[in-house]
Amino acid sequence: MNVLVCDDDKEIVDAIGIYLENEGYQLFKAFNGLEAMNLIKDHEIHLIIMDIMMPMMDGLRATMKIREENNIPLIMLSAKSEDSDKILGLNLGADDYLTKPFNPLELIARVKSQLRRYTTLGSLETKQNVFRTGGLVIDDESKIITVDGEVVHLTPVQYKILKLLTANAGRVFSIEDIYERVWNETSFSPENTVSVHIRKIREKIEINPKEPKYLKVVWGVGYKVEKI
Q: Where are the alpha helices (DSSP H) in 72-190?
């Protein structure tokens, strides 16, 4: 998922960016509110981390402008700790608030929490070509897969298999059917090929691949993604 960090302190932006990229997020950088708004116009941003005190356009004004057009999750940062700043930021549309200095791991936890809410209750729900079951979400427009708000990286073949099964959650597909639909050809012995990919997908999307929550085998029939 794409996260925009907006702060006039380049070192803070870079430091936050390291933690975000380590978690698999795509980082976008801005150093004032105007830059942030321009990036939002040109890119699909899934979450914003916005400082308050910045030149040209501060975080409060930027947040107010952003909220006129969309509901991207927004976490506000500030060196100030007065309750009035928190209340003002939240009233203008911020979803969460952190006071500097902050623990980067706490920030990442809050990012994940906001993205979980966004993918299950927010704007992704209104987009076309979004397939969801439980905490598993496939955005086929951006080719982004998340599980409980965390991005999962699959190979193209793995993506096609998971998309096929998730788009038809609850339906059982035979191994032959999966192979023909994904590889667009007939195979006389596709069992090993499909099962290897299924195992790899489970390793990436399941907490415990041996007891899968989503991608399940129906013995003697095939595979399905559970409808949750």
A: 83-92, 104-121, 156-167, 175-183
Number of domains observed in the structure of the chain: 2
Structural domain of 153: 130-225
**How far apart, in whole angstroms, are the C-alpha atoms of residue 128 and residue 184?**
25
DSSP 3-state of 79: coil
CATH of the domain at 176: 1.10.10.10
pLDDT digits (tens, 9 = 90+) for 73-87: 999 998 766 667 777
Do 81 and 152 lie in one domain? The reply is: no
β-pair type (144-147, 150-152)? antiparallel
DSSP state, 189? -
Give the mean pLDDT of 150-169.
94
> Locate tokens 């982004």: which residue?
144
Write out the E strands in 43-157: 47-51, 74-78, 96-99, 130-133, 136-139, 144-147, 150-152
- Tens digits of per-residue pLDDT, 114-143? 887 776 655 544 456 889 898 899 988 888
